[in-house]
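Q: What does the predicted 3D structure of Lysophospholipase L1-like esterase look like?
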Amino acid sequence: MRRVVVLVAVLGLPSCAFAAKPAPAERQAPVMMFVGDSFTVGSGPVPPWQTYASQTARLLGWQPIIAGAGGTGFCNAGRAGRTFQRSFEVELAWRPAPDLLVISGGHNDRRWSPERVRGAAASLLAEVRAHWPETRTVVVGPIWMGEPPKKAYGVRDAVAEAARAGKVSFLDPMRGTWPRDAVLPDGVHPTLAGHEGLAAWLAAELR
């Protein structure tokens, strides 16, 4: 049996002519992380992807990562058994540094002294700064959809003082007022419309 040998030569072409072209790099959306309570993670009929945190990221064109649990705060561990600092440690700190970190809350800390709240907020901010020194951090004070009790102002002021001492921005949602349709029948948590209003306010402040 005769063997037939076929030689194929490609002339005039560079050696890499048949290499696959790399796909163009896609523009990555900036990442914003949140640590918060039930206002941030969702409650009642409002799921996590419709909270003010998710909607703020959507308005800004950013990618949200939301941590925390209902009933928690800077001092208050709630049913989840962890404070904001612990939520940061177990849910966020192991991830790559975000472009922006929003720490939002204090509503559940009204039973604690302002001194304890200030110290806990300062401790969390110090840990964030040591862990992610280049990450922009914003602190949002307690959210009250109705008339805040007197103790809420002490918590807000304590959190604001910790933010100023830590040289980070402080935003105060207690300065605004919200319509009746923004509050669920429990008188505490936002409706979907309430979350939309909070998102519009926060997105405007962050811009």
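A (community wiki): The structure tokens above were generated from the sequence. Residues 31-206 form a domain with the Rossmann fold fold (CATH 3.40.50.1110). The first strand starts at residue 31 and ends at 36.
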